[in-house]
Structure formats: C-alpha cells, structure tokens
Amino acid sequence: MGQAVSVRANTDPTEAVAEGRRRVVIESIWPQVDGGRFPIKRVTGDAITVEADAFGDGHDELAVRLVHRAPDGTISETPMEALGNDRWRGELSVDGLGRHGYRVAAWIDRFATWRGDFEKRVAADQDVSVDLQIGAQLAEGAAARAAADGAAGDGRRLNELASELRGEDGGSGSGGVRAALGEELAGLMARHPDRSRETVSEPELEVVVDPPLARFSSWYELFPRSTSTEAGRHGTFADVIARLDYVADLGFDVLYLPPIHPIGERYRKGPNNVTTATPSDPGVPWAIGAAAGGHDAIHPELGTVDDFRALVAAAAERGIRLALDIAFQASPDHPYVDDHRDWFRSRPDGTVQYAENPPKKYQDIYPFDFETADWRELWLELRRVMRLWMDLGVRIFRVDNPHTKPFAFWEWLIADLKATDPDVLFLSEAFTRPKVMYRLAKLGFSQSYTYFTWRNTKDELTDYFLELNRPPLSEFFRPNAWPNTPDILHEYLQHGGRPAFIARHVLAATLAASYGIYGPAFELGEATPRDPGTEEYLDSEKYQLRRWDLDAPHSLAPLIRTVNRVRREHPALQSNERLAFHSIDDEQLIAYSKQSADGRDTILTIVNLDPHHARTGTLELPLAELGIDPERPFEVHDLLADTTLLWHGPRNVVELDPSRLPAAILDVRPSVRSEADFDQFM
Amino acid sequence: MGQAVSVRANTDPTEAVAEGRRRVVIESIWPQVDGGRFPIKRVTGDAITVEADAFGDGHDELAVRLVHRAPDGTISETPMEALGNDRWRGELSVDGLGRHGYRVAAWIDRFATWRGDFEKRVAADQDVSVDLQIGAQLAEGAAARAAADGAAGDGRRLNELASELRGEDGGSGSGGVRAALGEELAGLMARHPDRSRETVSEPELEVVVDPPLARFSSWYELFPRSTSTEAGRHGTFADVIARLDYVADLGFDVLYLPPIHPIGERYRKGPNNVTTATPSDPGVPWAIGAAAGGHDAIHPELGTVDDFRALVAAAAERGIRLALDIAFQASPDHPYVDDHRDWFRSRPDGTVQYAENPPKKYQDIYPFDFETADWRELWLELRRVMRLWMDLGVRIFRVDNPHTKPFAFWEWLIADLKATDPDVLFLSEAFTRPKVMYRLAKLGFSQSYTYFTWRNTKDELTDYFLELNRPPLSEFFRPNAWPNTPDILHEYLQHGGRPAFIARHVLAATLAASYGIYGPAFELGEATPRDPGTEEYLDSEKYQLRRWDLDAPHSLAPLIRTVNRVRREHPALQSNERLAFHSIDDEQLIAYSKQSADGRDTILTIVNLDPHHARTGTLELPLAELGIDPERPFEVHDLLADTTLLWHGPRNVVELDPSRLPAAILDVRPSVRSEADFDQFM
Fold first, then answer.
1. Which of A485, A513, A553, A615: CA 20 to 30 A from A334?
2. If you measure CA to CA, which chain A residue comes closest to B114?
3. pTM here?
4. What ipTM describes this predicted complex?
5. Cα–Cα distance between B665 and B667 in angstroms, integer?
C-alpha cells in the first residue's frame, strides 16, 4: 500500500504487559473462597486436592505444578496431572498447624512439545536431522540451567546427550533418535525446565490448618455454679473438677463454661428473668463486670486463678478441652464503664446507652461502641483479654453474639491470635441471618452454631444439611449442632418427651461431625418452658442456681455414652464430607449415610421424627455408591440396639418405635463372604 | 484478676485495618466475570440489573447505592432496593460506547435505624424525650454536612427540624414526634448521609458497551475474487460493489471478506490444495504477503486503496458493514521475512520455521514467533496494521486463528484499539478447545465462532445452546453461528440436500442472535466434498476462482431473505437472553422459543432435523411462562409459510415435511380477544 497512514499514538505494550511472552493462563482454581479473599479450612494430616484450568495459546505441551507454602515458609512443588479439557489436578498434604498457601505454576514445556512432534516425524519416516539439532539446542539450554543451579553432573550429561543428538559422537543418526526419545533425556529435561516465562496464579490461596478437634468434637455445656452437691451452695471450679469424670464417661471432649467473670449488680435479673432481684440472686453470667473485676477476672465464688489452672489441667488429664465463653459486653458495674467511658455510647442525658431491641430495654447490659474514636485501644484491650485466658491454658473460645461486633474486628483478632497460637479454636454463637453467619465463618471462626435447633422436619433437615455441605460453604463453615442451649428449649423437646430427646441427640451427633448439648438439662430431659410459646427454660440456670440429680433413672446418659463411643470408633461420623440422604417412604422417617474419606466405613442413620407413633417405611439405598455389591447380601449392625441384620438388595423395610428406640445407627458392611471377595480384589 | 499477665507483642490493629469502624461488607456482586478480572459485555441502551449482598454487624439499617462510572468519567448513583436475605438490587443504563465501571457502595444509615426504633418506642408509648435529642443530634450532623456541601438551604432547614425535635421551638413534645417521623426530615437526611465510613466494593467491575451490531448481526462471507461476472477474470472491489445490492436484498448487514492482501508465490497451493500450482493459480488468500506488500497492502488484482474506500462507502449506503479478515501469519514472500527476520523462528539449518502439525508441513505459511525478543515491536506493527484498516473505515475484524497467538497480545490489542474506537468489533475464529475459546471472549473478542457447525442432533443443539446461555459465559461470550464456512462443509449438508440447508439456516438464524453463511456456496446448495470423509469443499474458492449462478432456480435466496426479515422485525430473535427449549415427542423435531426482554415478542421455532422424512410430534409449551393465558386460545402465525393457526392449551400436534418445508418460525401471541383483555390489565 506504500502510503503512510497516521497511527494515533497510544499505549506502549510494555505499559500494560511486562512480559508479552508469558503464554500460559491459569483459571478456576478449586478449592477457594471468594477468589482467595478468605482461606479454606482443613485439619492436620488432610490431603487437599487442587484443580485448575491451565492452557496456553496454540498446541504446545504444558508443565503444571502445585506450589505449596508451609506456615514456616518452606516451598514444595508437586506435578499436576492433566484431566482433559485443560483441567489439571494435584494434591498437597497439610501436616503443620497454621496458614498454608498454595498456587498453581505452569509454563510451556518446549522439550515435551518437541519430543511429541519428534515421535510423529519418526513414525512418518521423515528426515529428522534438523529436528535433532533443535532437540540438541534444547538440551544445551537445560545443561546451562543445570550448571547454573549447581547440578554440574546433570549439566555434563545433558551436553553429552546433546552431542549424541547432533551425531557428534561419531554414532549413526539412529543413535541420535534413540537418545532423543530416551527416558534419560526426558528425565533430565524435566529436572531443569525453562521457567523464565512461567505463569504463577495470583493471589496465593490460603488454607487454615487446625487441630482435628476443629472438625470432630463433642461439646458439653454446664453452669459451674450449679455443680455444687450441697443445696444452695454456689458451685466452684473444684466442683467442676469433681464433675469431669462424669463428662468424660459420657464421651465428650470439650467442656464449655458460660462466662466465669464477676457479675454486675445494678439492674441484676432475678429468677425467670424478673427485674427485681434479691441480694441472694446470683445474676446472669453474661452481665459481665463488677467491683471484683471484668473480663480478666474470675467470679470470686467460683475460685481463684490457681483453681482455674487446676480445672484446665484436670480436664486435660481426661482428654477434655475447656471452652470459655467470650461475651464482649459489660454490666453497668464493669470497671471499663469508669475507666473507658468512651468505649460506650453516651446518651444526651449523660447516661450510658444500654442494650435495646426497641421497645425492649436491657439495662443490665452495656454494649461496647465499636464506632468509638478510641477503637484501636478497645481492640487491643479485648485482645489482651483473649491472650490472658490463652496463657492460662484455654485453647477454645465460644464467642457470644459475634454478629453484633464489626466483622473487621473478628478477622483481625482471630488472625492475630492464631498467628502465634494456631491451635486455638473459635466457635461462633451467631444465631442470625445466614449470610452474616457465613461471613463470620469465612473471616476465621473455626466452628459455627447452626439453625439445627429449629430444623425438625425431614425436609427442613435435608435441605439445611445439603446447604451446609454445598461448596464453597463446606470449605469454610463447620457446623456445630446443638439440640438445646440455655436459651433454646425447642417446642419439639417440650412436647415430644424422651423419644424427642433421643431423636434430636442422634440427629445432632450423626448429621454433624461437631455437636453439643447443654447439660445436665438435656440428659435429664428438662422440658418445661417458662411460659407457653417461649423457648426459655422454666427456672433457667441463667438466673439461678440449680441442682441436678445425675443418677436419675430416666437419664439419657447411657444412650449418649453409646452414641459418643460410636462417633469415636467410626471415621464416617468424624467429617461431613460424605453425607447423603436416602429415600424412605414415610414422611416421619429420615435416613442418611456418612462415609469415611477412604470409603471403608459407612454409617447409616435412620430416625423416626414422630415421637408418638411407630413408623414403618421402605428404605432405598444406592448400594453401588456405598461400596456394597447389589448382588450380594450385606450386614447391617445396629450400634444402638447391638443387633445385626442381613439385608438383600437396595430396598429394605425399616420400623422404628419411639416407645422403644426412635433411632438406629447402622454400621453397613459387605457380608463376611462378600468382604473376603472384596479384599481379594483390592 | 489483678496480676499482670504478659501479652505477647503482636500486630497493631491499624497495620491490618485502616478504619475499624467500617462496618458494612459487600459480597457476591452479580454480574461479574472472574471476580472482576474481565468485563461483562452489553450494547448501547441496555439496562443492567446489578445485585449484591450487603450487610453490617448488628441490626442497623443500611443505605446501599449502585455507583456507575461512564466512559467519560462521569459518576452517577442510584439507590439499590432490599430483596430480603441481605440481597440488594439496582439498575444502571449504559448509553455510551466504551468501558463503563460499576461498584456497590453501602453504609450504616444511622438516621433510618433511629427512625425505625423511634416509631416502635412511640407505638409502645415510651418516654422518647432522650430519643428526640438523639434524633436532633443526627439532624444537626446532616445540617453541617449540607452546609459543607454548599446546600445551605437544606442545612438551615435541618437545623430548624433539629430544634423542633428538641422542643426548642416552644412547641409541645408531640410536635417533635411529628417532625421526627415526617417525610421532610427523612428526605433531607437521605440527601445528606454520613458516608465517612462507607464501604465501596473492590475492584471496580467493568462493562464493555458495544454497538447493537455486536449482539445482533447477520453475516455474509464471499470471496471478492469470485465476484467477476466474466469467466476467468479475477474479481475486483468494483465487482463486489455490484454484488452489494444482492447481499442487502438478502437482508445481511455484515459483509465479510477473506484476506485482501497480496498472496505469496513460493509453495503456493493449486486447486484442491495440490502443492503444484501453475502460474495462473491465484493462491490461498491466507498466505499473506508478496513483493506487492503485506498486511498493509491490497492485492493488485482486487483494486486500489481508493477502490477499497469506495467499497466501504457503497456498503455503508446499503446498511452493510465490511468485516475484514485479520490473519497474523506470513507467506515466505512477505516483506516481514526480510525486514524482520527475528519475528520468525529460525531453524538450525538457517531456514525459517514454517507452520506444522507434525507430521504435516505447511511450507507456504510462516507463523510469527510471538516469543521473539523483539515482541514489543511485533505487537506495535500489528497494531499499526489494524489502525490502518480502521482508518480506511473498517469497523469489524474477523480474526483468523486467534488461539495460536498469545492471550496477552489480544487483550492488549483489543483494549488499545477500543480505547479510541469503542465501536470496533472483533469476531474470534477460534475453532479449538472450549476454555481457549471462552478465554478469548473474556479478554475482549466481541463475538465468537462456535461448535454450531458440528452440533446437528437435538441433544447436541440443546446442550450446547444451554451451555452458551449459562452465566457467567453468557455475560462475555456472544455466539456467532455458521452453518458452513469455506473450511467446513459438514456431512449433514453433504447428504441432506435442500432440507438440510434450510434446517441449518433456520437453526443458525433463530438459535443465535448473530449468524452467518459463506455464500454463494450456501444459498446455491454447494454440497460436494473434495474427498469422501472430508469437510473440505470440492474446487474450493480457497484455491481457485469460482463463478456462481446467483439466479439458479434452486437458490435459497428467497427463504434467506424471509428469515432475515423476520429477524429484523422480531426483537425476540435479536438477543439470546430468553432462549428456552420445549418438549416435543419426536427425536428429530426440535422446538425452542425466544422472547424479547419486555416479554411482548415471542418466537417459537420448530425444525425437523431429519432431511428425508416427514415427522409429527406433540409439542408441549409452558404457556404461563410465555405470557399466554392457558385457558384461552392463542394465535400461532407461521412466518415462513405465512399461515395462522389457533392453538388451544399447552399441547399441540406439529408436522413438518422436509419435502415442503422442514422448519416453522412461529409468532406466538394471545388471540385477538385475549389480547384485548390483556391490554386492559396492563
């Protein structure tokens, strides 16, 4: 065309693209949460399968690696394998506690590309003399890299192989072809790849690795002040120590205590939440702070710091971790109210703003004003409180109402505490809207309370647990299911009697790898509400001391002990990864299975949700998915009733009578004969 | 507790969190592609519905805005409305071409929170004197902001209302309550919100706004050299101008020309791809470059630059845009081979590396080496080529094999060109793996060729178009469906005769808002392959001149004209947003509908995929979803046969006989009587 055409001045490529020769792109890495904004969660010993799309322009071969950064900064790499359709998969093991990182790195593998083409040329009987020279150039490039990396031996050998390719060894052309296609050259080339234009995925994705207890835990909540064996005497840490054998015998491994701090006196609530307390009323443990101290102090009637240390130690001896309640709010008598008046909102009349849910007023509680100009000092003080209890041996915190404090505060606090103490765990007690609950889990809470308490029908339970097991939610939200709490006595328990308690216990303990009960109210079947229509307990321990008859003949302790033993013995119940619901043709019967990651342990749970009537239904199992040969009989061992049945085929009839036992926890295995055959083929 | 406990030194909150009082979080903004890494695509005049999760800690009210940045930098905001479950929705209109940005901004609305609580207090007959003072403080804060913003009137009025709330106007308390709950105060407060701690979503999401042609276009491809009306004479641009009325009459609005540059002589291919060309063979247009010039030159036998300008102008007069083929590769005779030898890969024997797909060799084509050290100069030169043709009036480029050039190159090039010329469009001719095709669309190509040509069964077509309409793919990938191309004569067309051509044309034109045909081969039913089992045409225009008898009686021109008219008249066919497949109980009958965004235009297409036999099936329509009253008869106007039927209810029997017409394009409307009723309720 000849004539000059004016080209408008515009961006230079280098302004936008530092290296235009980086040809591989990486997309859709899994697992991840919000594009890497938040870490995924795992426990020590887990293997994480990572997948990614990686591809370049054209048709060159790729090399793809999974890059793992351990918390100590150590970098290790494993090759990723091609799954087809430009998808790649690799695996990394996370053994150490803390924040690990992972990325995908990929580059054009010029040698692999050349070698593949070369094979086709040889197969087509083409003249490959020039191609051998190209291969030799590639080998010489690798030799130089090897030498620079200090692998002098590899470098020398690569140069020798390059000479063979060039035919400079005096050998025949076929010797060059053999060397070109040999495994030795391929291995050496793979050891010294040209990664100068590799693509590394951004941002680094992170995984928080917790102790196994973060995933699999059995919680027991009790009020220490109600552990006294003498009527009217305030319980002490020594009484709690005396109760530890009972808790351990039930099979729990976390003992959660409501706040143990001094309790405010002004606006103190009396029994059943009356606003007129008498001097002998102990008050609500969540109204924290009095003359004796605040969040860093122990209620004088419970004991001393040394008593607390003794409790932590005695629990640990029995395999029990203590979980402390963290409720960041103050009673009007908290030392902060005088010392840090600016941490609370002031009303125009000069008083401190109390908690409200208009028109209701909670004058015994002052919330912190996290919008205070002094927010940095407030955050630092609350962190001091946490570290103080951590230094006394507390490794688990049950955080009260985290959803009423800023998200940024929790994200900072938890990251900060886990930076030095990666074993510390946090349970979020946020009974609020789902997205708020999920955000708290994303930003760092190790476990979360759930809506389980209010999910009572077959559809509700199925939908909810399918939602919780759905990615990416399942990557960061670890449900902890409670049939009751001091605040929630669901009407199902109020009206369902003993079968309702058993059903809810079995559901919690088998649907969720972590669960808890508020006892002894739970095992003793406490079921009377304060008023009709409320979920509050009558004579709740929140407002008064209680004594419990642990030896009552109707106690559910034996059942609970059995269920917790089954949980310990069966890996299937120790994670939520492989939960599947199964068809059973009665609306009050719910059936679901869990499997261990290796598929060797299968637990099938069936619960009759109707506490008043026996129910019969035909259960349909996807036997092949459960690893059962549909052509052979298989064993079903009822771990609660301790009976064994032999079932045939996918459809079997089940009856559950609540007057005997409304639930069955079934260990499903191939029958002995099938198992022998099965082993033979492993 | 008294005793000092050592707190380990750790991060200061301010290191991690600049503003700890920013309490709102924003998540899950839709639409977006890869977290904002790539823009979504729209055309001028579109309204974009944006949704986001936004929530704070606690229970305070939020204000949420959708922030829109126009290409000229103008910022505008619209309120987003709460959908429940912490989801918010807003809408923005994109009128100008270019890259727009959008974000979500949200903050705690203290006044709205206070007002909601205040109403509850008043309803509960509480003393609200202190609350009125709090309200007055909020109003005074807004007054100060109003004054600072230059809204002195608002500021004065807010102060007056604050006085009313305080009861300082000498009025009664009830006057304060009235003012507090009045719309005037609410309106003024909403105009002057406290956004000092607002949260603004990161990163800014972008939308590329193209001309409507980017979404709805009808392409016609022809070889200019075959437009001569005299046997053996090489066609010219003047011949193409003479052909424009024909193309316009068929209803096409894009005329796509294969490369128009000088063609290489060395290794030139002869008819039917033989490697022994005679001097009179014209060569392959994609073997670009000869003594007469390269990518910036015009093939001497086609005409001059002025002839080209005349063609662009003549096309524009007929509402036709010219699309130019951009094939970034060179023949051995391209001037670049001498001038920029370093833009090609050299072989150890000193020759230039030709294209290969081992063991096949394409010695007439030299690919650019995008890994050249001189990549910046190569990129700049290719941009110069593009701008040169843009300056000659080309606004559409059909890019040949973009998947064999680096992704980063295209992303830079397209962004660069569209920065000054946002109306320019790019069609990606990447017939390769799906993720590569999708990546090219993400990084900027306006439209993309598809696998449509190879999707011939009902299941294949259904699955594929559902995949293409699936978010987020539908946000960035605009399919352009072709029943044939110079490289692809599918065996369905080879064996199906005229009914196959009609079926494929109707499918392309109604499944995809953009489609194209390679003519006149298509409308003249050219169906003979070069060899059995190949998709190459016999005597393909790629290698030789052809003359076409446009007046042949068997030409499909009349049908094509009708289909294109229907496309222009029916908004339903001008986007892919509302495509739905419908049940019809014959495996060879496929039925689907499209609706306009406003739901007023519904086109139902039914195609018999069996070119040899009449097929009958019962069609089942979801009438309510299509806006048809299931209780009333409705009209079905066949736009191809020009007949009207009255159908009753969702199930109707359809017969299509390929010997008459294998397809029906039906305009579905409520019957006249129903329509009158319908209008009454609008």
1. A485
2. A358
3. 0.94
4. 0.94
5. 7
